[in-house]
């Protein structure tokens, strides 16, 4: 016969003891989780993610179709537990649906969570720098680009220059290389005088290149993942400076 012992135990704050950040990731996204791990490496402010079903092609129709799935996906992140911040990881969908509608879907499940999206985070980043004239680089096709430009302008910013790779397939966007992105930023800066450059799409890999691009150009740069990770971190209460991640990570939220 095997002896059996019921043992006592103690608990501590566990993973996410200071804040739990929930991240909704597109099923077709290769990039956002990898880049977020650069920003959320520890146990005190911790990242928990789940994937939302979406189509491979990025169109206004496929983006809008995700709306009813947002709350369903959030519900799968630590079910029954509190999330302090929830980030919905799709730039163009947040612009198609509008941030308030996205936040409403999140709060159906996490009513007390602070919410962000790449577009909400980008607008907050622009304000943190006092930037008004924004150069924009995207991978999207024309009809999605029109929505992105209109959304940024409706938020009170100017878009004097807009550039795109015009690629609608998410798996291809995830493979756009660093040299192409850096060239895209350089072409924007050659074409127009801007206060800041925003590179849109959570599948774009730019996090590790931002500081170097800023050093060579002298212009603040952010991307969907870069801005949303910063915004989520600040909403979670972390105000530390991380200059190795770029100038934005030395900024607090604008009042």
Question: Describe it for me?
Answer:
With 255 residues, the protein is of the alpha/beta class. The chain folds into 2 domains: 19-117 and 228-250, Rossmann fold; 120-223, 3-Layer(aba) Sandwich (Rossmann fold), CATH 3.40.50.1860. 39% of the residues lie in helices and 17% in strands. It contains 11 helices and 8 strands. It has helices at residues 32-39, 60-64, 67-74, 91-97, 99-107, 118-129, 142-154, 170-173, 178-191, 210-217, 224-235, and strands at residues 19-26, 45-52, 85-89, 114-116, 133-138, 158-164, 196-199, 221-223. The strands form 2 sheets. Strands 2-1-3-4 form a 4-stranded parallel β-sheet, sandwiched between helices. A 4-stranded parallel β-sheet has the order 6-5-7-8, with helices on both faces. Helix 1 (32-39) crosses helix 11, helix 3 (67-74) runs parallel beside helix 5 (99-107) and helix 6 crosses helix 11 (224-235). The chain starts with 18 loop residues before the first strand and ends in a 20-residue tail after the last helix. The relative contact order is 0.16. The mean pLDDT is 95.
Q: Write down the overall mean pLDDT.
A: 95
> What portion of the residues fall into strands of 2 or more residues?
15-25%
Distance between the termini: 67 Å
Count of discrete alpha- or pi-helical segments spanning 4 or more residues: 11
Instruction: Count the domains.
Output: 2
Per CATH, the class of the largest domain reads: Alpha Beta
Query: What structural class do the secondary elements suggest?
Result: alpha/beta
Rg (C-alpha, Å)? 19 Å
- The percent range for helix content is 25-40%
Q: What is the succession of H and E elements?
A: EHEHHEHHEHEHEHHEHEH
Strand segment tally: 8
The appropriate CATH architecture of the largest domain is 3-Layer(aba) Sandwich
What summary fits the major beta sheet? 4 strands, parallel
- How is the largest sheet built, in terms of strand order? 2-1-3-4
General form: globular
Low-confidence stretches: none
Return the CATH topology of the largest domain.
Rossmann fold
